[in-house]
Amino acid sequence: MAKKATKGADPAIENPWAFFDTVTTTDRYVDAHVERPTYGFADSGCYALNAVVCGDVRGGFPKNKIVQTAGLQGSGKSLLGKYNFCPPLFADGYFIYYIDTENETTREDLINYAAFPPRQFKVLHFHTVEQCHHGISVILKQLEDYVEKNKLFVNPNKLAFVLDSQGMLSTDKNVNDVLSGQDKVDLTKAKKLSAMYRDITFRLGEMGAPMYVTNHLYLDPNAAQTHTETKKVAGGEGAKYSASVILSVYKIAERVDKDPNAPKKEGEKKEKEVRGIFIQVSNIKNRMVHEGFGTRLYLSYQNGLSRYYGLHVWAEEA
Questions:
Q1: What is the rounded distance in angstroms from the CA atom of residue 127 to the CA atom of residue 168?
Q2: Radius of gyration of the chain (CA)
Q3: Which of 77, 128, 201, 232 shows the greatest Cβ crowding within 10 Å of its Cβ?
C-alpha cells in the first residue's frame, strides 16, 4: 500500500516533473494549462469521400487544415468545393471567403446555383499570389487581434477559405514583365506560394479555419528521363508541404442512351447524353491515411454527389 504524502513533503518526490509545471514556455495554451481545441471534421455528404480524406466514413474535411484537390480541367475540383466542402460548414455556422482567381465566379452564381446563404459568404477576386497572401493575412490578423483582445483560447468567429484556383494565380513580377514588354519566364511563383503557405498554415490552424484549394496537374516533360510521375501538382514543392491533404481527381463521363426505349435501326447508333460523371479520387499526400488510398465517386448532374457510391470498391476488395 502506497504511503500518504506527509505535510511539508517535497513535491518532487510525489511528482518528479512538478518543476516543469512552473516553467514559462511563451506558448499561451501550455502556460495557462489549457488544452488546444480539437475542431473535428465537416461531413462532405459522401461516405467514400470522407474516408479518402480522413480515413473515417463518419469524418470528412478537417475543420482547421488545408485540403487541396489537383486535377486536369473539368475534373470536378471546383464542384467538390462548392457542393461538398462549403455546405456542411455553412450549416455549422461558418462564414466563407470564396477567392476567385479565374474571374468566372460571381456572388449571384453561388447563391442561385450552389445555394450559398447570401449573408454567410463573400467573393474575393485576386489576380496575383501577393494579393492573395496579403488578403488572407489581413483577414486572419483581425481575428487574431479579436482573440488576443478578449483573452480567448478558441476563436468564436468561425470562418473558412476556398481558393479557386491556385494554378491561375499570377505574380507581381509576371504582371510587370508583361507591362514592360519583356517576355521572361517567371521563376518566382513557386517561392511566393511557398512563402504564403508558410505564413498562413499555422495561423489557419490556430483560428480553426479550414481551407479548400483547387490546383492544376501538369504533364512533366522530364518524367521519362527522371523515372518520376508523368503528372505533377502545379505550384512547386513548397506549396505541397503545407497542405495536410492533397487529392488527385479526374473524371470519366457517364454516357447513357438518351431514350433507352427508342427502337434501334440496323447500323444506327443510339443518341447518348451525359447525365453525370465518375470522379476517380486518390491521395497524393495525406497525414491521416496512406498515399494512394482512393476510390471512384459518382456525381449526378441532377442529384449531386452520391452518398453511398464508392464504398462498393472497398467491399469488393475485402
A1: 8
A2: 24
A3: 77
- Measured in whole angstroms, the distance separating CA 183 from the mean position of its chain's CA atoms is 34
Q: What are the cell numbers at 221?
A: 516533360
Least confident of 49-53, 151-155, 232-236: 232-236
Give the tens place of pLDDT for each residue, 42-101: 999 999 999 999 999 999 999 999 999 998 877 889 999 999 999 999 999 999 999 999
What is the residue-wise DSSP string for 94-120? -EEEEEESSS---HHHHHHTT---TTS
Rounded (10°) CA dihedral 100, 105, 111, 114: -90
The cell 480515413 sits on which residue?
Answer: 55
CA distance 201 to 290: 22
Q: What is the value of pTM for the model shown?
A: 0.85
Tens-digit pLDDT profile for residues 193-227: 999 999 999 999 999 999 999 998 865 544 444 44
What is the distance between the alpha carbons of residues 147 and 139, in angstroms, rounded to a whole number? 13
> Given the C-alpha cell 490578423, which residue does it identify?
141
With H, G, I as helix, E, B as strand and everything else as coil, classify residue 12. Answer: helix
In angstroms, rounded to a whole number, what is the distance separating the alpha carbons of residues 97 and 143? 14
Q: How far apart are CA 148 and CA 310, in angstroms?
A: 44
Positive or negative torsion for Cα 104, 105, 107, 113? positive
